[in-house]
UniProtKB/TrEMBL annotation:
Entry protein name: Ubiquitin-like modifier-activating enzyme 6
Keyword Ligase appears in the UniProt entry: yes
Annotated gene: UBA6_3
InterPro entries (alphabetical): E1_4HB, E1_FCCH, Ubiquitin-activating_enz
Domain annotation Ubiquitin-activating enzyme E1 FCCH: ranges: 1-42
Catalytic class of the enzyme: ligase
UniProt keyword terms in alphabetical order: Ligase
Organism: Desmophyllum pertusum
Ubiquitin-activating enzyme E1 four-helix bundle domain: residues covered: 43-106
């Protein structure tokens, strides 16, 4: 069906191995013969994810922490944009600035955290310049694997959303 090439269609999932698309009974559509390639396109923007994040919760005993860390890391990026550097190690003034940025982001967001844990965000600021090589190596391996999954489409990535 050459008429479908380059077009975007809304997909209805029928089973793990089958899906349907738009009505293809019109005269512009040829008879389906075989095969074909479909590519999934995410239409969610980074701006949407920043204000109303779709967060994967890994630890069910700490349900509120992922959203707080989302605002903390977003605030960390804004801190770096404003001051041209990450917060100084163990600097209380920089940590307070980061906490205030995270608080303002939480107030503006569509999905808000009930309250921000000041201690958690201060520790994030205190350690933002640190590097723990074994953790960095593990995280690099996980991120590399997820990128390969997303690019090849062979396996399903953990979450296919915009990266910061």
């Amino acid at each position: 069906m050459i008429a479908l090439n380059g077009s975007e269609q809304t997909v209805k999932v029928l089973s793990p191995y089958a899906f349907s698309i738009c009505d293809t009974t019109g005269p512009e559509y040829e008879t389906y013969q075989y095969g074909g390639i479909a590519r999934q396109v995410k239409t969610e923007s980074l701006e949407t994810q920043l204000s109303k994040p779709d967060i994967l919760t890994a630890d069910l005993s700490k349900m509120e922490v992922p959203l707080q860390l989302h605002f903390g890391i977003h605030a960390l990026h804004l801190f770096e944009e404003q001051y041209g550097r990450l917060p100084e190690i163990r600097s209380s003034s920089d940590a307070t600035k980061l906490y205030e940025l995270a608080k303002s982001l939480n107030e503006k967001a569509a999905t808000k955290a009930d309250s921000l844990d000041e201690k958690l965000l201060l520790h994030l600021a205190f350690t933002s310049r640190g590097c723990f090589p074994p953790l960095a190596a593990s995280l690099g391996g996980i991120v590399g694997q997820e990128v390969l999954k997303a690019l090849t489409g062979k396996y399903t990535p953990l979450k296919t959303v915009a990266l910061y």
